[in-house]
Amino acid sequence: MHEISIADNLLRQLTKIAKGKEVKSVCVEIGCFRNIDLESLEFAISNLKDNYPLLTKCVFEYKLIKALAICYDNNHSYEPEFARGFKCNQCSSGVKEIIQGEEFNLVNIFLNYKI
Fold first, then answer.
1. Alpha carbons 50 and 63: distance in angstroms, whole number
2. Do the Cβ atoms of 54 and 15 come closer than 8 Å?
3. Which stretch of DSSP H or E encloses residue 25?
4. Which end of the chain is more exposed for a tag (fewer CB within 10 A), N or C?
5. Which of 108, 112, 114, 78 is nearest to 93 (CA)?
6. CA nearest to 109, candidates 50, 10, 24, 20
7. pLDDT for res 1
């Protein structure tokens, strides 16, 4: 379950970015080809975040990014699917390039600034 190490690394990075401020919320984009089980990641974060005092009240939001690929033979843009062997739905050639779906991006961080 590599989601535990991903969660722990994310929480460590957020603590560094926050520079002593409490983190209110975070938005993360995750590509569907990133091989991250969202439920496992959420479980790991909820169980680890109490180890990071600046993150105990943080709310996490996740945006899933669908996969898009370019096919090898005709440069069609398509959504690769496991059921089709990841082949192009127009010409059945294989994947030349994945252009979307492998992301793991920290999109927004909202900090609690006390005045």
1. 23
2. yes
3. strand 22-31
4. C
5. 78
6. 24
7. 65
Alpha carbon distance 35, 3 (integer Å): 9
Place of tokens 């569907």: 32
Alpha-carbon gap, residue 5 to 96, rounded angstroms: 30
CATH code, 19: 3.30.2320.80
| Closest listed residue to residue 2, CA positions, set 33, 35, 48 | 35
Q: What's the farthest any 2 CA atoms get from each other in the chain?
A: 60
Spatial separation of the C-alpha atoms in residues 21 and 19, rounded to whole Å: 6
Give the separation between CA 84 and CA 64, rounded to whole angstroms.
21
Burial class (CB in 10 A: 0-12, 13-18, 19+), 70: middle
- Of the pLDDT bands very low, low, confident and very high (cuts 50, 70, 90), residue 108 is very high
Q: What is the pTM of this model?
A: 0.84
Q: How many domains does one find in the chain?
A: 1
Tokens of 19: 């520079």
